[in-house]
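RESIDUES AND SHAPES:
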Amino acid sequence: MYCAIETSFDEAGIAVCSAAGTVLFSVLSSQVELHAPYGGCVPELAARTHLSDLPQLWRRMPHELQSGLRYMGVTAGPGLPGCLLAGVNFARGVATTLRLPLYGLNHLTGHVFSPFIPPRAEDGQHATPALEFPHLALLVSGGHTELYLVETLTRIALLGQTLDDAVGELLDKVSAMLGYGYPGGARLEELARFYPGITSDARYDGRFRLPVPMRGSGDLNFSYSGLKTAVVRIARAGGDGSQLTLAEEEHPSLLAALFAAVAESLWIKVAAALGQHPVELVTVSGGVAINGFIRERFQAEAQRRSLRLAFPAPEHCLDNAEMIAWLLRLYVDAGIPPAPFDADGNWNPGQPK
């Protein structure tokens, strides 16, 4: 069995999967409520909390699973340095005690392959695509918006990335500005659903006009700081720029326009990448991949092109240890041996270890 620990950000997770990749055990400690009063994650607080959470999570694993472990993996990067160190040091202690080979694994690579995680036993009707190369992988999360060409398990080429804010960061900042708190994605989508002038494929018809970022940039990069600024200007128009002036009943329309612009910007880059790399499968993963507007737009575009599209199960979109255990299983099955590693906050999938 394969065990993995994930502590790249403000959530600590431990998961075990079988040789078939089926999840046998998974526990997660979320710190959302802990960090909400600060409007975002406080790195030092997150790292200290991981130090106390990990032993408690480990004790929840049944003894028969602990005794059956054969491989250990831990997220070694990218992420917050203190959080990564908490997980890496705990994993090293467990691996040494149980005499298990220890793999340092990439958090983003875990997201990239999360759409291929086999369903849980109780979700057996859920169809999971077989691992396929090459394919395009769009990763959209709180800290990352990136597009990859996935050629093999270990050859992942970065095609484009955000030049400033990630999509999740954009949503959190807009949520804080409008007074809806942190994190913002789910709450903003809930509000945007109240606006009737957005189509089933996430196209907006209303009075607000927002730019589609990087539409004509000629490359595969993303940028969301300008879109954030455009939303702020609309929300604070007519005043001195320091306070909200937009009526609360107008928020759903503005947010629908925002999600339509985001979905459009993401699809434009994927479509351009398909022109350069005509693959048959596109995956979309990361915390923001749970967003319904993005899914609806991509599903409509994929249907028009007869393109296959894969998203992770909702529980595998946000940071989780199950995707790291699955990645560990893929590495072991591919004959990839463990190698010396250190926590690396800037480690990218295309960067060898």
